[in-house]
Amino acid sequence: RTHELFLSFEYVKQFEQSDSLLPNTWIVIRIDGRGFTKLCAKYKFEKPNDRRALDLMNAAAKAVMTELPDITIAYGVSDEYSKLITTIASTFTSYYIHFWPTYFPETTLTPPLPSFDGRAVCYPSVQNLRDYMSWRQVDCHINNLYNTTFWSLIQLGGYDAKEAEKFLAGTLSADKNEILFSKFKINYNNEPEIYKKGSIIFREYELVEPGSHNVAETIDHVAEPVKQSKTQDENDKKRRNKARVIIEHLDIIKDDFWDRRPWLLS
Ligand code: ATP
Ligand code: ATP
Ligand code: MG
Ligand code: MG
Ligand code: MG
Ligand code: MG
Ligand code: MG
């Protein structure tokens, strides 16, 4: 009988079950373009920073945030790890392709089409989560200073890639700032914030004045969520759905960004 046949195969469902993440933690989903080194060459992205490509990434990320209201700045809280990752990575990919013609009107996408991988990591404390975000922003700064200097040597200085790499080997940040300024009259501080700091996408409510005293109380130093009543949860969800999703290029290493937006990490 069909039902017996069904039961004889059903055991395979058990293989699906070991995918829940550590409860009461901040789940960070990091997505990353697959084979984008090739994709950049194929579509002739400007080096080191193609503004259209960054704006396209931001548009896709903003659409994901708008569509999945459980995601805060930290990419969500859920118990289902593979579902969360696949939902985010596939929704992001869909919007990336959807918005492509807006940002690259002269270039038609052809196979292999862009896609993204996703990984989930659990961070048990707010401090871990902030350190994670700080780590990504420091990485952005280091890479951008290097890339800006590297591509200036090539585009403005007539170096080839090998010579530029050799010239920069062993240089510190201060040296790169100095090279940019003395050789090319580029003041790195005046480079666009989006390149230096990356993009932060979050729901904006009313800002809290720095120094106002409920701030410190609102920010919890452990990740454990406060038990809330159902209606409180529903209210929060409604507010989240209504809030504007915005894109900024701010410092997220210092306390100020978080102090002014206590709803992000509490
Ligand atoms: P993998 O599939 O392992 O992630 P990958 O080729 O995507 O391989 P990454 O380490 O993710 O490797 O590097 C992404 C590459 O795409 C880098 O070289 C980066 O400079 C380039 N890139 C991404 N976005 C832009 C952009 N907006 N402008 C210029 N270059 C970009
Ligand atoms: P979740 O996001 O949790 O997966 P869901 O609404 O997608 O929620 P599923 O359990 O995945 O729920 O069920 C998918 C639904 O879509 C089912 O009701 C199924 O009958 C319907 N469905 C999927 N593909 C087709 C199709 N080609 N024709 C008609 N109905 C379909
Ligand atoms: Mg990458
Ligand atoms: Mg990678
Ligand atoms: Mg990549
Ligand atoms: Mg389903
Ligand atoms: Mg489904």
UniProtKB/TrEMBL annotation:
Residues 127-254 form the Thg1 C-terminal domain. The keyword Transferase applies. The keyword Endoplasmic reticulum does not apply. Keywords: GTP-binding, Magnesium, Metal-binding, Nucleotide-binding, Nucleotidyltransferase, Transferase, tRNA processing. GTP binds at S78, D79. It comes from the Eukaryota. Binds 2 magnesium ions per subunit. Mg(2+) 2 binds at D32, D79. One of its GO terms (molecular function) is GTP binding. It is an enzyme of class 2 (transferase). Residues 9-124 form the tRNAHis guanylyltransferase catalytic domain. Its EC number is 2.7.7.79. Adds a GMP to the 5'-end of tRNA(His) after transcription and RNase P cleavage. Belongs to the tRNA(His) guanylyltransferase family. This is tRNA(His) guanylyltransferase. It comes from Xylaria flabelliformis. The chain holds residues 45 to 310 of 321 of the full protein.
